[in-house]
Amino acid sequence: MTAPRAALVLVVVAVLAAGLVGLDQPLARWTAQGGDGLRDIFGIITWFGQGGVVLVPCGLFLLACFWLRPRLPSLAGPIARGTRGAALLFAAVAAAGIVTDLLKLIFRRARPELWLSGQSASFFSDHFGSAYQSFPSGHTATSVAAAIILGRLAPRWRTEFACFAVLIALSRVVLDAHYLSDVVAGAAVGAGVAILMLAWFRRKGWVPASDGPQDEGPNTVQR
Question: Where do the structural domains in the chain lie, given as residue ranges?
Answer without folding.
Answer: 3-203
